[in-house]
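If your schedule permits, I should be very grateful for your opinion on a structural question. I have a record of one protein: its chain in single-letter code and its fold written as discrete structure tokens. Kindly check, if you would, that the fold set down in the tokens agrees with what the sequence suggests. I remain grateful for any guidance, and I place the record below:

***
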Amino acid sequence: MLKIKRVPTVVSNYQKEEAEGSIRRNGGCGKNCLRECCIQGAKLPLYAFKKVNNIGNATNMLENENKESPVAFLDSLLLGEWEDRMLRGLFRYDVTACETKVIPGEYGFIAQLNEGRHLKKRQTEFRVDKVLQPFDGNKFNFTKVGQEEVLFQFEANEDGEVQFFPNAPIDAENSPSVVVINVSPIEYGHVLLIPRILECLPQRIDRGSLLLALYMAAEAGNPYFRVGYNSLGAFATINHLHFQAYFLAVPFPIEKAPTKKISALKGGVTISELLNYPVRGLVFEGGNTIQDFANTVSDACICLQENNIPYNVLICDCGKRIFLLPQCYAEKQALGEVSPELLDTQVNPAVWEISGHIVLKRKKDYEEASEENAWRLLAEVSLSDERLQEVNALIFEATSCGNNGNVFQQLPEELDVDTQSLAVEDSLNKSSHRRVVTGTPECLVLQ
């Protein structure tokens, strides 16, 4: 069994308190948590989203424009509530004060200096040789977070319209999905999406959870709001099913990388191979319906899980494009195959780092950040080309034999040189959040 000593990220204030051996108080557990001891009679905001057939469908977009939403999902609800928690002092540090720069070079890797993120963290043993591990209620999980850390419930509206309820009862029997703050944020608006929280699901993707994450990206409606996922063995630190998301008004390097279409499925989903990027992976797009899209990608994820292959997922372009990135860094780390120089940086290359947003914990590394250093780190994450082809074969079999009626079709080699635009000016003009401005000649600085 491979094990490495790790310093897990503290994602909830009660995770830290629990680790320090807090004393139980009278009246439930005294933490106002989401377990049976405190949940009776509790109420939280509820955002009920409208189910659609296809993300980005012109008809759906027209309908949404003609019908005013009861609340602006990203600006007023998610980011507004996140800022409220910041004013209330619920975060462990002010992430908006962290230095951030775009590294000069062809790819535009983003470096952030976040010295507070690795302080005061308890050591645990983290298994890296098993992607699927059973849920352990004795360890920290998200039912133990305080209700003040929960921003809102996030559920589909069976009535077919977007609705918002500022003070809705928690339906414990139906286990709501919730959005909570990450108290150790990487960026502005950093939140966690926890599907069916009270079911205490382990960290493993299924069709329903990925569909929920796609809807969250679609509701945000902004290409600078991305949703990510880390499997166990690929730097997930909590074995309780969750996705991460945050807002950063800069294109990620991985989003700008060229791709080559390699297959098409009957359900309308196309699969491409990522090119000229330090981490090898696949890109999924299309789908006749959002359900087809979610099913295809989740089937690929389930295939990796069942074959014990660690992976990361990036959902971008408002849910219209998904990167699936198998990785082996933790395995190399456990086997002693990563250089001491890279280990000394204490960077755990999870979904955000792989996408090109690299969180550095030492000022020295931040000041010396370069495209060459970023490339060297991420290259250690990637599977070899030979191994990736073996993994791709498993994925193609899983996605073509799923329950979607998919039929695999090999496409002739075709370089997709028309990489997707993020509509930079349009999105920045519409947003009140942080912009990229010109700094010194060496870099761009985020304000």
